[in-house]
Design brief:
Radius of gyration of chain A: 18 Å
Strand content of chain A: under 5%
Structural class of chain A: mainly alpha
Number of helices of chain A: 4
Helix content of chain A: 25-40%
Number of strands of chain A: 2
Distance between the termini of chain B: 34 Å
Largest sheet of chain A: none
Shape of chain A: elongated
Radius of gyration of chain B: 19 Å
Oligomer: heterodimer
Chain lengths: 135, 319
Amino acid sequence: MPFVRPRSHPLWAAVAARNSGHRRVTLLTWAAAVASVLGTVTVAEVARAATTSSTQPPEATTVVPLHLHSYYPRIRTFSKPTPTHTAAGLPTPRATHRAPSASPSPSSSPSQVLTPPTTPPAPPTTPPVVISSGS
Amino acid sequence: MARTFAVADHVEATAATWSALGCVVRLVVTNSSALGPAVQVLEDNLSAIDRACSRFRTDSELMQAQADTTGPIGISPLFAAALDVALRAAELTDGLVSPTIAAALAAFGYDRDFADLPDDGPSPIDPESTRFTWRDIRLSPDRKAVSLPAGMQLDLGATAKALAADRAAAHIAAVCGCGVLVSLGGDIAVAGEAPPEGWSVRVQDAPGRLDHAPVGSSCIIAVADGGLATSSSVHRRWRRGGRSYHHIIDPRTGRPADSPWRTVSVTAATCVDANVASTAAIVMGEPAVSWLTALGLPARLVGTDGRVRRVNGWPEGDL
């Protein structure tokens, strides 16, 4: 079974685009959100179309407009017991939470492109509601 | 595996926890009055995905499709969606995440619901790992039929659960009009209006209880949208011939992946994407760091030696 380097696969352009889509889509309705979650078939169809022309560079795939997933998965830490914490035991905003870049240059690195679109809100105070682990 | 989801085992004001699909299910909503209806919607979704995709019940669509190799067999939209997601995962990873690993899992002893596995057993026989690939699965263009070669065994477990989480979260948010978090064995999808500070999630190697200290490396993050998935070789392990094996199969070898990473967590726009990336990262090994970085997916990788790597803005700091 032939294996090539997965990072070269054009379909991941769709995934990356969905994660950086907040730059392209500013309005997300509930219908769009539901449609985006349920739109896997559309993703696959478009992806297959991209795959059939393997010489097509990832930048040329036209999957982005079909996905209204405008969300960057905003994540932050808020429970690290370090000196950076406030008196209440909550961390100050971390350096990793950079302010958004209004118009990133096309040559930005992936981490720069995916900088969250808004300044992170104040550190949360709620305890964990769920565990994510291998199962 | 097959069970009736009648009563949530543990119910809080805005959360419920129970077991289904061989894993711990946790549902959290932002509106306590929505919990009851939300539990029902989730149970319905889980029952449906179980009927479609279980490899441990003879009446599932998956088992029926495997048994009927005379030609294309008609399938439900849900099973088609699960197959589509699995094939997409394989396509995205060039086969590193494949639905054709069931024979390998069974050969190494994972041939029944995990809770029913014996403590030990005879040494595994290396499966014919390369006999089939995901490209041998023929899903009709209209997604209404599938053809499987004789002898192929499918395992849609990981991607199907992630798909169920995504679908159920969206369904619940639409029906109940509130924020919702659905966790199926630690693979998480959120939808609706998140709490102001996001959904607080403790990420760790193995399942546990929130009121218990985590074992091993862990951190706490907040997720406001999309999905979060963790793949790990730490927990779902069993013994055969006196040796320990885990459930993340490398389709290239047909054996449990020999990875420098014991746990990988990824956030993405959907739980499915997060799941695919986290599983692929375990199988891929060391190159996963650059791979995830290039994809722009925030991720945290824990090595077998305990070292932690974070990429694409995953917050610094562990518990």
